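Appendix B, example 12.
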Amino acid sequence: MKLEDMILVSVDDHVVEPPHLFDGRMPAKYADAAPLVVRTPEGDDVWTFNGEVIPNIGLNAVAGRPAEEYGIEPTSFEEMRPGCFDLAERIKDMDAAGVLGSICFPSFPGFAGRLFAKADDKDLALAVTRAYNDWVIDEWCATFPGRMIPMALPVLWDPDLCADEVHRVAAKGCRSMTFTENPHALGYPSFHQDHWDPLWRALSDEGTVLNVHLGSSGQLPGTVPDAPVDVMITLQPMNMCLAATDLLWSRVFKEFPDVRVALSEGGIGWIPYFLDRIDRGYDTHRAWTHQDVGEGVRPSELFRKHFLTCFVTDPVGLAMRDRIGVENICWELDYPHSEAPWPHSAESVWEQMVEAGCSDTDIDAITHGNAMRWYGYDPFSVIPREQCTVGALRERAVGHDVSIRSYDQGRHAAPTGATSNGPSLATIQAEIRQ
């Protein structure tokens, strides 16, 4: 296989929601209460909803910008690459990078829709959640068939309504839903309670994948408030380790054996140690903890059955792919966030695959096969396979500008709490909790 022959499907990208998202999608009684984009006197474009102001954080939309311009300050749509929020431009950016398919997490509502869930008027909260999901399915994913995999927001505050939404969006062809990696951190019952049983049943009935993205609980790992942001960046994957541990030892998979969970943006290099640790801990302590994952079943087997993982750049994890389970690994681009190697996405994953000695079979599974299987995604039914490769997509994108250039309009001072080493961990955590 050559680089140009790969077929790339990213299971973790992001959309910066366009201002028209809710136009014509809200019930008449709530039309005036829908989220709205306004421009501040400083020139920033911000979303307003339920008395809150939610900026477009610059770090969420840095594709195409030099690294020196990365930051957490609010920004305007003019200071973003259009592919961040414009679907037609996103498809061009995907073509230029050689990326066939994409799953996009939300931005301003939070990765699991917690902004909507905080609204006191729960009928309004439900209306905006459903309107958002309809936009994702009917516009963002339907306009260019075969290119986008739809993923819905959950109804966090009511497990029965959440189950209803799983069924509703599944009828529209969406079998993926976001969720928080730690509901307890948001004031809801934990995974260990039966509170969420209606959701687990609905996911099982529809074959819907639950996607938990790091930071979706409003928390990221850190040490002390005055630590540099580099501490949080280093520890980010541990959020997914925590979520996997909590779910694996919970009652969920024992009582709902068909539930499947995708760990988003957590990397894979930590997983071989994690699998060894849970097996050894089970053998050593089950006599007194009374944990039971099933007759003849190892905890590591439970992980491989129920969890999908993904990576952007993770050569260590790829080198140990057989210990993780090749069938459990997917690739992600993370466009337009700072981790994304756009537009050199294909080169990035290809170099890692070659270095790890991956076979063609492994490459096909990790780059697209596993994603297609888990999400019921069949792009070849609408796009001939030969037109789905990196080479074919890039040929379509000849002439599309992918140059790295400045989008800075000189409006922003250093972020509050910044030092010569960048913003503090406390500053970043405050932005995440907003």
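The first strand starts at residue 8 and ends at 14. The CA atoms of residues 204 and 258 lie 5 Å apart.
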